Amino acid sequence: MDRTMIIGIAGGTGSGKTTITRKLKERFGEDVSVIYHDSYYKRRDDLSYEERVKLNYDHPDAFDTPLMVRDLRELRAGRPVLCPVYDYSIYNRTGRTQEIRPTKVVIAEGILIFHDPALREQMDIKIFVDTDADTRILRRILRDVKERGRTLESVVGQYLATVKPMHEQYVQPSRKYADIIIPEGGRNLVALDMLIQQIRSHIEAV
User: Fold this and answer.
1) Contact residues for 83 (Cβ-Cβ < 8 A; gap 6+)
2) Which residues, other chains included, contact 126 with Cβ-Cβ below 8 Å and sequence gap of 6+?
3) 4-18 per-position pLDDT tens digit
4) For residue 123, pLDDT beyond 70
5) For residue 181, with 0-12 CB atoms within 10 Å meaning exposed, 13-18 middle and 19 or more buried, which class applies?
6) Taking CA 175 as the corner, what is the angle to CA 166 and CA 155, rounded to the nearest 5 degrees?
7) What residues contact 47, with CB distance under 8 A and at least 6 apart?
8) Which of 10, 79, 121, 146 could link 74 by a cystine bridge, Cβ 3.0 to 4.6 Å?
9) φ/ψ (deg, to 5) at 163
10) Exposed (0-12), middle (13-18) or buried (19+): which is 120, by Cβ within 10 Å?
11) Distance between CA 158 and CA 144 in Å, rounded?
């Protein structure tokens, strides 16, 4: 058995991906590490802040996905990686990195992680969190205004201009690649318990 199990958790913005990820991390502690696709947004030092604000961050081209693929391969091989650190307030990657150490279970999380075939190939279990669109936009507004310093107008504008159309074009269609579909995210305690059992079995086996 492969010592490292990689679990992909995808779904639209505000679907509850992070809630599930956080609960699994809290449950298994040092046996689980987490890697976020958002950390791999391309570095855009060539653009001004005003130009970066206007970019489409919900399109697959916004990400340096090949770097994430390489990092997941390194983690599976038992080697630590230096993951980029993205700053939402400046719409750019910082010069800092965060060391992620190999663990028995690695969770990869992001809205578009099932879109890229090379990224999908790294995953042993693919989970899609499926949540009603109205619920997702309300969660997105609350999060971006409270945690990321955005204005209500900017969040709604970005949602209508890029988030919603990109969800319909890329995120929702990637649902077909999932092994497990979880309705209502972290509130689905039955699905969460099944996932916990699966992870516990892997951890105990290795």
Assistant:
1) 35, 39, 71, 97, 98, 99, 100
2) 7, 8, 10, 114, 120, 177, 178, 179, 180
3) 999 999 999 889 998
4) yes
5) middle
6) 30
7) 55
8) 79
9) -60, -50
10) middle
11) 11
